[in-house]
Task: structure prediction
Amino acid sequence: MGVIDLAISEQDIKSIVQSVLSGMGISEVGAAAGSDQPKIRQKGIFVHIEDAIAAAKAAQKEIQPMPLEFREKIIANIRKKTLENAKLFAELGVEETKMGNVGHKILKHQLVAEKTPGTEDLSTVAWSGDRGLTLVEQGPFGVIGAVTPSTNPSETVICNSIGMLAAGNAVVFAPHPAAKKVSNLAIDMVNRASVEVGGPENLAVAVENPTMDVSKVIFGHKDISLLVATGGPGVVTTVLSSGKRAIGAGAGNPPVLVDETANIAKAAEDIVNGCTFDNNLPCIAEKEVVAVHSIADELIFYMKQTGCYFASDEEVDKLVATVFTEKNGKRILNRQCVGRSAKVLLEKIGVEVGNEIRCIIFEGAKEHPLISEELMMPILGIVRVKDVDEGIETAVWLEHGNRHSAHMHSTNVNNLTRYGKALDTAIFVKNGPSYAALGFGGEGYPTFTIASRTGEGLTSAKTFTKSRRCVMCDALCIR
Result:
């Protein structure tokens, strides 16, 4: 599960793609017009967005009246095919996006396949009495428009497809352009899983070349009833301004607070494990540490023991100059650094380390750019505070009101309670690595669409439904 070599050849990527296709039973490969490159005919992938939306609308009309048992049959095959192709999706995802870690991406696909809720997530509320029977059931929106990120491309497509299909919807995806190959292969797999068990094609659709213009059509289309955006603050703001019902899963900058009552050795290991999972791409991952002064040195000692490199002031300055670039007078993340390993990041500033180094740490003020800004790379700034009260105040400032995720290591229940109330996040992990929030080493179900901004939290099948009341007057009550 260590750092992988990103220097994969063009022939390697073609082999990976062909392996994915073969693993999914796809043999429809021909030559593209005017090109010697293979042209893959994928199920659910269209040239024009209007055709894709029309196909999804037709597929949804087929799936809605089908029994929940049949939806589960399709979902079971999606789970099976995801497990069969987890390694291939992971390899292609890392190669295409140049982000993350193959071993960890395999685990994420396995998690999605095994623990994403299906139709069991849906429920019915009933009232009965002298005047009859009333039911409130969860029904589909119809066709959903879903934006997916480059950080967890195929994982998000598969997770969303399972939940949205379980609820009786079809989905039109707008994958991130930097991850369109792996995203579209995942969409193809979803449709093949459906067709193999007698279900309709085009339950999930997209276009060959996603662009901002394609997204705009999706956002404004009359046949799309719900928008779901998983990505940065820009795309979330756009869908919330669309005039449609929208679910926004936006940015976070999760702090982790360690107080003087914590198990410091375990806290260090958990923090490093969480921060370095898939090279810090998950939005829930620890992005900075707030440590009470009395235990800060001990925490740093154990973090070094767990595979951290403590950067000097000069090296930190070089990192700032490397991981940020300037655009229109504003500091933005260098995409060539996002999702890279600590070893690769250190190589970029002229520091050679072994594969045992998993994370870069340093001490700094909360305003330091490598601390205050969400990096999505295994760099952890440590802010030293005098006590837990200052720690809570600092963590609130660092989280920037995203209300996304926060973590704490403590054995003081009162401190944990005060921290949880002050941060008010959709996710709060106590005394464990951040990924426990997704059911990986913790209880609960996974999702890669965490809607902190719009309040749904960890989304699942029931999130993609609307309540419908069904009333029978003066009958069907036999009490």
